[in-house]
Specification:
A hairpin with a 2-residue loop joins strand 24 (about 535) and strand 25. Among the domains are: about 5-320, Sandwich (Immunoglobulin-like); about 850-975, Golgi alpha-mannosidase II (Immunoglobulin-like). Helix content is about 15%, strand content about 25%. It is α+β, with helices and mostly antiparallel strands and about 1000 residues long.
């Protein structure tokens, strides 16, 4: 793809062709809360704006924008007077903010998403990004100074292009047929669009499970439809191509120039918590693609990131919103949970069974079974009595294991004085609840029955929340970390269904008794519902390779109750329809009020739920992080949460939600892991073996191995489903032992990657093209990934498979060596290579030129593993070089204390270790393995002294030095000749 075309030429070429295409009529169904809209106004003549009163300053410009004609009033009321501020914040970050001059529109408070301090030096002439504009009609574009002839990175000069309506979908939503893409800025509707190179590579714009894969569909090739994605936090299970738990309106664009074989990457963030649709499309016969934003409130608060690499874009985004939290070393262990451990005895037996099977278990979790009638911060006095829980958790701690309980977003409402529940009553006393517009408490319905929802904008809420955690810990639930669920917010009824009701009238949810249906690919005619791969030597796999279960939806846990709404006018916005905004976003459930609290609910400070909804999870994560710090002072908080928003990674990790036990869902989890590296939430992973439905032996075998190579590693299962703990099947137990041993040996490498993430925003997990940006065959690859830059992972993702096709980046210029055997791969340059992959194996390969610090003796727990000696694995490049680093500290202190950085450098015939820092590394380096040594050395020396304790394996060109006992607090040099 050529990058040197001038955008105006492209637009002129495309406008004629696109103008001849038919445009469907506008959807005029009335707005009724189920996702369709009424239009009133002249939709084809929105006037745009004129720039005036331009003022330059040392950091950028400020100007006014005035409505250029009669108001359009397409989906609200046009705002006549706007302000635009352009700030060159750094050499690589440009901030463009368009807002109403009167400042009546919602903007995200700095108390929610903290932004960097204003720049102290000017970057207006040195930034790689440059802002340009047309005054009338107003449009702007962003270019690179380093690529002045290239198509702009963002270009709103699209007025000559008639918009293509987006038809209503089963989930609802509005069609739009505005004539061209003039800037539209109304009290309840904002619209702006940018031209992009045709068929460019776009990533992000989630949270989403995209049917097109990690790379978003931009509609440029035959058979592609483009992308319509809604941003609105929703408890929607794991749907495909729909809004779900998190909202992250950032994308990364990678442009490749075929004529030169070079590429560059940039990023764009619209920092908005308002519901929106984002459309990626390529008009028929057009030379450009488009991205269009349709937002139902707020302002246009854009940040542009220059890159020019994928890694630097992600780092620049992290510098804006904050780098990820420091993870405790134990967080990288294997975690186990299910909904359906009915009592403490059953939970204890699972821990014992894992130990008996010699499958490492780092952390045991409990789901809502723990609670007394599903109430937060309790334990059932019969099933999970406090004294027994305290004893159980102490047993875990004595074995250097950990415990994590769940906390749901909704807090039970009690109806009478005999029902003592301090979390609720103290919340009433401290006025911490989200309100109805009339000031009464907003009451929804979740697991415990009628519930209230904490208002994080209220002044007393965080202190009340912290006290609840302290009381819980004091009662016997002495947690090591916290799991935050249902925080989209999720509720099972429409609107404030408990307001005015008899609050003692509803009972807690009882739960399903079993999950119906056989596991995917399971032949039930052979023998009962065991989930075994074979019965009496006969395979139970009834699937053809490559089965697609993407049509299987999430199970419904509870019926939804419909109630009347509470009216309009919350949030000090008189005359604004908060419950049914004129433009209906294509939300998963249809209307924005479905399966969550109503958009007219009111928060302290006059904020309306319509504006702040998608940030609730972030604010809970921040409050919980602080609470855990209070309860566990000096320790790194370990949090996993479901709903996320920009900057959530400062406070929490994330699991990918309520997936299904299917092969397709296992594959989909890879794109989720890759997405959240971009979103600066790197501690992420799926419910291994799947949550909903029943898993079978083969699926769980493959998934347990795959998840050992992703950041967050937890097996979690739904209520009443076939048990899927890894010891349930012999082959899964064996696969798990193999995979976890590999994971624990890699811990120093994982730990270093996450230290880099917490200090610089560098993504620990990477798409292949991040490291090889000029290889177009990699741009859509999302069935493989890299851990850091040096380990390539290729899982089996199809039932019945005994081989797997892998692509090895580098086009023959990189040597990849097998993690398990150390043999070099004879890889096809630029194409796929078929690898053996029998059951209980996973392919992982080491990149040449790498040097990895490892734990030599993986043990049952992370603590025991860290006590053992270190090993080094060095994979030489063709030129005989290698490089690596390792970060070492105590693994738990917060803020981090003393540390040590180790640097490893190999040159032909020599390997050097440099050591810097105050932390004392007690463990010795016992083994160095060097791959790629072409012939057996005649002599080896360590620190100038000849050693005889080395072996050489010619088949793998492998030099192994053993029993070294090197002190990593000091440097060392190894020579061979």
């Amino acid at each position: 793809m050529l990058l040197t075309s001038v955008v105006s030429v492209l637009l002129a070429a495309s406008s004629t062709a696109w103008g001849n295409t038919a445009t469907p009529s506008f959807d005029t169904a009335s707005a009724n809360g189920n996702g369709t809209s009424t239009f009133s106004g002249n939709v084809t003549n929105c006037p745009g704006y004129t720039l005036q009163n331009l003022s330059h300053n040392e950091h950028g410009i400020t100007a006014s924008l005035s409505l250029a004609g009669d108001a359009c009033n397409a989906f609200g009321k046009d705002i006549a007077n706007l302000t635009i501020e352009v700030v060159y914040e750094t050499e690589s970050r440009l901030h463009v903010h368009i807002y109403d001059t009167a400042k009546n529109q919602f903007t995200i408070p700095d108390t929610v998403v903290a932004r960097p301090a204003p720049p102290t030096q000017s970057h207006t002439t040195t930034s790689d990004l440059e802002f340009s504009y047309d005054a009338s009609p107003f449009a702007f574009w962003i270019t690179r100074r380093s690529q002045p002839d290239a198509m702009p990175l963002f270009d709103t000069r699209t007025r000559s292009l008639p918009a293509t309506p987006i038809a209503s979908t089963p989930a609802g939503g509005s069609s739009v047929n505005l004539d061209g893409f003039e800037l539209v800025f109304e009290d309840q509707y904002l619209q702006i669009a940018s031209a992009l190179p045709k068929g460019t590579n776009v990533y992000g714009l989630g949270e989403v499970i995209a049917s097109s894969g990690f790379r978003r569909d931009i509609g440029a090739d035959p058979g592609e439809n483009g992308t319509l994605h809604a941003f609105w936090a929703s408890d929607m299970g794991d749907p495909v191509d729909q809004s779900m738990y998190g909202s992250h309106p950032i994308y990364m664009e990678h442009r490749y120039d075929e004529s030169t074989g070079t590429s560059s990457t940039n990023g764009v963030l619209l920092l908005s918590s308002n519901a929106m649709d984002v459309v990626l499309t390529t008009p028929p016969d057009s030379n450009v693609s488009l991205i269009e934003y349709r937002v139902i409130g707020g302002t246009l608060d854009f940040y542009f990131f220059a890159g020019p690499t994928a890694g630097s874009v992600i780092e620049q985004y992290g510098a804006l919103i904050g780098y990820p939290l420091w993870q405790p070393a134990w967080g990288f262990g294997f975690h186990l949970c299910r909904w359906g451990y009915h009592n403490i005895s059953e939970t204890r037996e699972v821990v014992k069974a894992m130990r008996a099977a010699d499958i490492p278990l780092e952390t045991q979790w409990n789901d809502i079974d723990l609670f007394q009638v599903f109430r937060d911060f309790t334990s059932d006095p019969v099933s999970f009595p406090g004294d027994e829980m305290r004893e159980f958790i102490a047993e875990l701690a004595s074995n250097h294991q950990h415990y994590i309980p769940i906390v749901d977003a909704a807090v039970a409402v009690t109806a009478n004085s005999t029902d003592v529940y301090d979390t609720y009553t103290s919340g009433v006393e401290q006025d911490v609840w989200i309100k109805n517009p009339d000031g009464s408490m907003y009451i929804g319905q979740v697991w415990p029955g009628y519930t209230g929802f904490p208002d994080w904008f209220a002044p007393n809420t965080e202190a009340w929340w912290t006290q609840a955690f302290q009381n819980w810990s004091d009662s016997g639930i002495t947690f090591d970390g916290i799991w935050l669920d249902m925080n989209e917010l999720s509720t099972f009824c429409f609107y404030s269904c408990g307001t005015g009701a008899n609050l003692s009238d509803i009972q807690p949810y009882v739960g399903a008794t079993s999950v119906e249906g056989w596991p995917e690919c399971y032949n039930d005619t052979l023998s009962g519902k065991s989930g075994n791969m074979t019965v009496n030597g006969t395979s139970t796999n009834s699937c053809a390779s490559g089965s697609d279960s993407s049509s299987i939806g999430p199970q419904k846990r509870m019926s939804i109750v419909n109630r009347n709404g509470r009216g309009v006018g919350a949030g000090d916005e008189p005359g604004v329809d908060l419950n049914s905004p004129p433009y209906a976003v294509h939300n998963s459930y249809g209307g924005l009020n479905l399966h969550t609290i109503a958009t007219n609910a009111t928060h302290a400070g006059g904020y309306a739920e319509l504006d702040v909804h998608s940030m609730w999870g972030l604010m809970e994560e921040k409050a919980t992080h602080h609470a855990v710090q209070t309860v566990l002072p000096g320790k790194r908080p370990f949090l996993i949460s479901r709903s996320t928003f920009p900057s959530s990674g400062k406070w929490t990790g994330h699991w990918l939600g309520d997936n299904n036990s299917t092969w397709q869902n296992m594959y989909y989890s890879i794109q989720g892991i890759l997405q959240f590296q971009l979103y600066q939430i790197p501690m992420v992973g799926p419910d291994t073996c799947g949550f909903n439905r029943n898993a079978d032996e083969e699926l769980c075998n493959r998934w347990m191995m795959m998840s050992a190579f992703v950041p967050f590693y937890r097996n979690h299962n739904t209520y009443g489903a076939l048990s899927q703990e890894p010891y349930r099947w012999d082959s899964v137990a064996n696969a798990s032992r193999i995979a976890i041993a590999a994971r624990y040996s890699m811990l120093p490498y994982w730990y270093t990657l996450f230290a880099n993430s917490s200090t610089a925003g560098t993504p620990p997990v990477r798409a292949l093209w991040y490291e090889f940006p000029n290889e177009p065959e990699l741009f859509a690859v999302d069935k493989q990934w890299l851990i850091g830059s040096d380990i390539l992972v290729t899982p089996v993702l199809e039932p019945g498979a005994t081989t797997v096709d892998a692509i090895f980046p580098g086009r023959g210029n990189v040597t990849w060596r097998d993690w398990w055997t150390h043999a070099a791969v004879n890889a096809t340059s630029g194409g796929t290579t078929t690898l053996p992959a029998p059951i209980s194996t996973i392919n992982a390969h080491i990149r040449d030129g790498s040097a990895l610090l490892l734990h030599q003796e993986p043990a049952y727990t992370i603590y025991e593993t860290r006590l053992g000696p270190y090993a080094l694995l060095v994979s030489l490049s063709a030129a005989g070089g290698a490089f690596g680093t390792a970060y070492v500290d105590d693994g738990e202190s917060y803020p981090p204390g003393d540390s040590r950085t180790l640097t490893f450098v190999a040159n032909p015939g020599q390997f050097r270790i440099q050591s810097e820092g105050a932390y004392d590394v007690a463990q010795k380096l016992e083994t160095i393995t060097v791959l790629g040594v072409a012939q057996k050395p005649s002599g080896v020396s360590v620190q100038g002294r000849a050693v005889g304790n080395f072996t050489y394996l010619p088949a793998t060109e492998e030099l192994v030095l053993s029993n070294l006992g090197l002190d990593l607090n000091e440097g060392a040099t190894v020579n061979w000749h």
